[in-house]
Amino acid sequence: MSNVLVIGDGPLAYEITETSKLNGHGVTPYFTNERGPDFSHPYINVEQIVSRSTDLILEAAKNKINYWYTHGSEYPKILTDIPILTLLYTESATHISNWLRNAPNVIGWAALPPFEKAKAVEIMPGLQTNQATLEAAQQFFTSLGKEPVIIKDCVGGVLPRVVASLINNAAYALMEGVASAADIDVAMKLGTNYPYGPLEWADKIGLDQVLGILEGLCEAYGEDRYRPAPNLRQLVYAGHWGERTGRGFYEYP
Amino acid sequence: MTIEHIKKVGVLGSGTMGGGIAQVAAQSGFDVLLYDINTEILQKAFGKISGFINRAAEKGKITREEADAAIERIITTTHLPNMAGCDFIIEAVPEKLELKQSLYQELDGITSPHVILATNTSTLSVTQIASVTKNPGRVVGMHFFNPVPLMKLVEVIGGASSDEAAILTIIEMAKRLGKTPVVTKDVPGFIVNRVARPFYLEALRLLEEGVADHATIDRLIREGGGFNMGPFELMDLIGLDVNFAASVSVYEAYFHEPRYRPSLLQQRMVESGRLGRKTGRGWYEYGEDEK
């Protein structure tokens, strides 16, 4: 049982907060963009929210630069000993640790909503991550009843990268008028046995998060295969981020 | 022709897909005329279909009477002009454009222009198949999934010239066959074979990059994401050659769209003859009983 600071801006962060509480952890949540776009606090001073009793920081944010990058010059000493588990939707662990001064304490992780149903979580040590941090990450996810699986440090991990690519491809098909959103989802569930249709899944993950993954992959690989569908981007601009905002590819009255 | 007038269904091609369609149509109460080029092929296909129907009766899924009646409703022929007596025709011959087009041209002279011609193509353009016929409006795509008796989905593809009424009839027909129809435009891969490509291609990229081995990727997709099968297990089931050919075909059809770029690693696997379950080895190895 430990004191966990959960920082995040999407459904995965909200879900992992609940799961951590259920499994006996003391949780301090720090959320932005809970109900959609909110640009009133673009930068958060982590030093103000982290406390002496914090054992572990779990970050699940797409705009992590808002949390980490700007503190480079006045790096909070308190952070140097705490394991930081950073969600690798937009950058690799090695990339993020480059912004921080405690690279050995930084490790990447990845999963997708619905987190409740996930049995395995991806763990990605950066090039400088130390053994103690790896063990802390493994212990933490094991305590949530999830099996930690170690893979190589990269943007998007395995599951988020594959699913974001499916969603992007479905969004292109929707934009091109190939079929309705409902028909695309029904076709993928019945024709391939996917657990969710790609567009309804996007609404669960958060369209802002999906766009973050795709932009992260574009940046990391510089390849056209990851360029986000224009209609996905438009929905994100409009604040239609999925289930949590009441509208995404579908409407949730 | 509207759905109420359809009593007798013609099925062209008695392979896996044609046979499955004939079986489902007969079990849904239609008289079926199954066509293929020679009697031997037809006898083999008829044996398979009646075997499947009999097994369904033995398992108690249908009654003995229903099974006998369904088998009795299927008649085979090698004489294409016999299709004149059919109210609805589903074509499931090999995926060769010239073969399909010549068949549709022959049907022009055989069937009444009101009879709808449904093509079960999965890779060709419905518009292009229809273009050589006198009445392109009656040609519509009706894409079933393998195995036809089990898979609920049917993609209904309106070609550039397909009549709205013909599309509506196909939707009704799919429902009568116990299927769930979805309507799609005539684009390469339609919905499923197009949208599903990154499931395989991104997994292959992850493997090529050394992010994880194939078994770990499969496990994360299954246990992390709730998929029934991982991409590599699924490629082994489908056949690596078939899956690779589908990727190449979609990639070519979209003028080399980078999202669909095939994998070199997969090509090497195909070249080595590791095609999946059917050869005993693909990404995984399989014993005799698993093929």
Summarize the structure.
The complex is a heterodimer of chains A (253) and B (291). By secondary structure, chain A is α/β, with parallel strands linked by helices.
Instruction: Indicate the radius of gyration of chain A in whole angstroms.
Output: 18 Å
User: Most extensive interface, residues per chain?
Assistant: A-B, 46 and 44 residues
Taking the sheet with the most strands of chain A, its summary is: 7 strands, mixed
CATH topology of the largest domain in chain B, what is it called? Rossmann fold
Low-confidence stretches of chain B: none
Structural overview:
The complex is a heterodimer of chains A (253) and B (291). In chain A, strand 6, helix 4 and strand 7 form a beta-alpha-beta unit. Chain A has two domains: 148 residues, Rossmann fold; 86 residues, Orthogonal Bundle (N-(1-d-carboxylethyl)-l-norvaline Dehydrogenase, domain 2), CATH 1.10.1040.50. Helix content of chain A is 37%, strand content 14%. A seven-stranded mixed sheet of chain A has the order 2-1-3-4-5-6-7. The mean pLDDT of chain A is 91. Chain A is globular and about 55 Å long. By secondary structure, chain A is α/β, with parallel strands linked by helices. In chain A, helix 5 crosses helix 8 and helix 7 packs across helix 8. With 291 residues, chain B is of the alpha/beta class. Chain B has twelve helices and eight strands. Chain B has an eight-stranded mixed sheet with strand order 3-2-1-4-5-6-7-8. Chain B is globular and about 60 Å long. The N and C termini of chain B lie far apart (44 Å). Chains A and B meet through strand 6, helix 5 and helix 6 of A and strand 8, helix 7, helix 8 and helix 9 of B.
